[in-house]
4-hydroxybutyrate CoA-transferase (Paludibaculum fermentans), 450 residues
Amino acid sequence: MYHRTASAPARTISAAEAASLVKSGFWLDYGACLGQPDVFDRALAARVLELTGVSFRSSLAPRPRAVVESDPEGAHFHWFSWHFTAWERARSDAGVCYHMPPNLGELHDYYRRFLDPIDIVVLKVRPAGPDGFFSFGPTNTWHRALVERARTLIVETSSAVPFVHGVDNGVHISEVDYIVEGDNAPLPELKSPPVTEIDRAIARTIAAEVEDGACLQIGIGGMPNAVCSLLRDSGAKDLGIHTEMLTDSLMELYRAGVANGARKNLDRGKAVFTFGWGSQSMYDAIDGNPDMLCCGTEHTNLPHIIMQNDRVCSINSTTQMDLQGQAASESDGHRHISGTGGQLQYARGAYASRGGKSFMCLPSVFEKSGTRRSRIVMELTPGNIVTTPRTDIMYVVTEHGMVNLKGKSVPDRARAMISLAHPDFREDLERQAFENRLIPRALYPALRGT
């Protein structure tokens, strides 16, 4: 691990004093998710009219950021995010938040190779232990790279941050320039959405494919919750966890003894993740728990690491797919809604794993402006970002079944995707596929025998 050396012994200062270090034109980094500061953020927001051209990098803001809320026109502060939450999406719609597209597993490298040193990095951490280390808690991500690249490093301490075991999951006091005492408020929680019947139908298909000893990567949402519930009750054995995000549903598998990591090749017996976001119950369960291993995205998200475990099952959701199998998971046309995250890297890592499976899941329909529409389309909405290319798609699952696109021709892909669409849309999709030469005349049912 690279060790940053502070210019002087760390000094405890007030949030206002820390905010006074910021100058116009500075770049700041708030880190990711639960590692973002709050007391410092509010103190800097109070200086909004004194500053111009101050830019922030961050990701997955778990609550509104005071600096952005203090400057609704974006005249003083500029917010850049590696991955949107609902709040960042709304601020993007207002024109004051901007997306930076990454594969999350590459972000250490971005900071080390392509981005200038950061004027000030501010991270929320647990107060230092007897060994002088401030734990990053449940948010490791690329924080070590931020420490390396900081001109000035400020930590905001909070006793609400659990101590989480991990690899390079903290910063030593000798690397820190300033310490700000936080407010110790409870960490933001992420409520799980309700599970729908469509979620359950998709989950049943996926759960049937998960073998004993499989290693899971799974995200947040009703469908992943349903998958975990089924696996918990199915008698599945010796599942492993190597995931980007640790969720309450994965913790349920751990608590039930289903996910014990006993057959993992890499980090055997450990639940590996790069950030956790869920309920207070989850934060309590991981606090000091030696079975948890919070690692940087270099370890959790890179395909050549993921593939080292056998039978990796990568389970991700998307919002739209075309008939050739492209998955658009992060935008609605030119409107950005989330981010690439680890989807592509986990699809590749799972495929390369011995016995691995990658699942891309979506409901077949949605409603917009009172009209029901198909999520499986002839061509993607103009402006939609392709998150996972057709060449990387393995299994696709809707409530109408599952297909494997690996090795299939374009006509076979089109026909397979149509079989997953809602029956009300299949005839029209088949006609469009024929008109656009995805399905040849010989395979188009309407023209057979003519």
